[in-house]
Amino acid sequence: MPFGVVYGFVYILSYSRYLYAHFCRRCSMEFFLDGHIEAFKEIGGVANRHTYDNLKSVVIKRKPEITYNARFLDFARHYNFSIRACTPGKPNGKGRVERVIRDIESFLVVNTFADIDDLNKRFGLWRIQRNTRLHRSTGTPPVEALKQESLTTLPQIHYLPYRQEPASINKTCFVEFDTNRYSVPSQYGDMPCDIFVYPQHIEI
Fold this sequence. Notes:
By secondary structure, the protein is of the alpha+beta class. It is built from five helices and eleven strands. Strands 7-10-11 form a three-stranded antiparallel beta sheet, with no helix packed on it. A two-stranded antiparallel ribbon has the order 1-2. It starts with 6 loop residues before the first strand and ends with a strand. The relative contact order is 0.17.
């Protein structure tokens, strides 16, 4: 039975071909940042340079020059990695991840899932198998080649994966966000506010 639309976060290391990926309910900034953080934790560090397609979470515009998303630039500075944006119309610039996405699509086509937790659980087992078998190009299991990656050490201070949205508290002390209403203390009625949206909760 369908349980709604989900989005995939895919992160692959160029040298080892080690794959981190999971599915989430949204593709907004907080989930994009959280996907990176979980990938960094799993691989035990950060690659020096990251290559991206021209998604809005990374690239705001390309002309007259590339303008990067300020929030993501802050994230990249925190983890000390450089950003490279793929050239539009040049699919060979992102070949490694394109092949992985085709493999993921093949996994999805032949399976059914009860909910997103079941999807991530079974997909996680598939991903473990992929990372532990010989890679068709390198001839080495990605989990073994990962040990030879030159990764930057993770910073001691954790980065908070959120996006900030302006909002207003109405006269009855409720804030409307994403079709839901949240109550706040009465002294804050009829005031502007900011909503900090995390993957699992919000703060007003």
